[in-house]
Amino acid sequence: MSSQGDAGADDLQVAKARRDELEVALARVRARVADACTSAGRPVEDVTLVVVTKTYPVGDLAALADLGVADVGEAREQELRDKRARLDVPGLRWHVVGRLQRNKARSVGRLAEVVHSVDDERLVGRLSDGAAESGRVVGCFVQLSLDQDPTRGGVPEDRLVALADAVAAAEHLRLLGVMAVAPMGADPDAAFTRLRQISAVLASRHPGATAVSAGMSGDLEQAVAHGATHLRVGAAVLGSRPALL
Ligand SMILES: *Cc1c(COP(=O)(O)O)cnc(C)c1O
């Protein structure tokens, strides 16, 4: 294929300095994960690093994919759709970590391999329909709210099992486990301890649903210590985002 006249390909190139920066930061995060696994006596293969690329340009994703990143995370349906259309890397898994809007859930089901933020039963049918349209099964985490703040997403503990049952029953969804964000300003150890207890309850009801999505740039060590299988790391790899979504 000729690159001439290949409109849109330019933005898949990043400056060498940026690529080097990403390479160094990624190596640093991978080393943190490896150290945390060693301390916890867990094999590093147990932990999937999802690099959260929301708000960063598609060129950064191309560079990361080239550096061996297999899992990327986006927060918004439109950004996911745009980036996926421009970056065709076979085998790259697209995760959605942000709050889902009901009217975008079907599209997310079509586009994502894994959704970490299922927090409403009304999303389930739409996600499953979207997954069916692209002929796939989409992996889902049910998001637990640990801070009683409805704006940050997640279901309260007393609604988690019903939500998980609904996901497990959906034809084109697979229940992977639980996800949570540690409450701001609180002790992440306490949050992840709670999450692990709830994960055990869920896994006793749904034996396949043992995954735990927890841990971000600032608390990945604690998350690994408490059994996280999926880390969602943005800023530590890509630099701090200019603005919150
Ligand atoms: C943005 C985001 C992350 C990544 O956070 P960092 O602090 O940049 O590592 C993880 N999880 C969720 C739900 C997010 O929205």
Structure description:
It is a single chain. The protein has an 8-stranded parallel sheet. Helix 3 runs parallel beside helix 4 and helix 4 crosses helix 5. It has helices at residues 16-40, 58-66, 77-86, 105-111, 121-133, 157-169, 188-205, 220-225, 235-238, and strands at 48-52, 71-74, 93-96, 114-118, 138-143, 173-179, 211-213, 230-233. The longest helix is centred in the N-terminal third of the chain and has 25 residues, at 16-40. The chain is built from 9 helices and 8 strands. It starts with 15 loop residues before the first helix and ends in a 7-residue tail after the last helix. The relative contact order is 0.14. The model is unreliable at 1-7 (pLDDT under 50). By secondary structure, the chain is an alpha/beta fold. Helix 6 (157-169) links the parallel strand 5 and strand 6 (173-179). The structure holds pyridoxal-5'-phosphate. Pyridoxal-5'-phosphate is lined by residues 52, 54, 75, 97-98, 181, 216-217, 232-236.
Q: What labels describe this entry?
A:
8 strands, 9 helices, 43% helix, 245 residues, globular, alpha/beta, 8-stranded parallel β-sheet, binds pyridoxal-5'-phosphate, disordered N terminus
Helices and strands, in order, run as HEHEHEHEHEHEHEHEH
Ligand types: pyridoxal-5'-phosphate
Shape, please? Answer: globular
> What spatial order of strands do you see in the largest sheet?
7-6-5-4-3-2-1-8
Low-confidence stretches: 1-7
Strand content: 15-25%
Number of strands: 8
The Cα radius of gyration reads: 18 Å
Helix content: 40-55%
The biggest sheet amounts to:
8 strands, parallel
Q: Number of DSSP helices?
A: 9
Question: Mean of residue pLDDT?
Answer: 94
Structural class: alpha/beta
Roughly how many Å apart are the termini? 37 Å
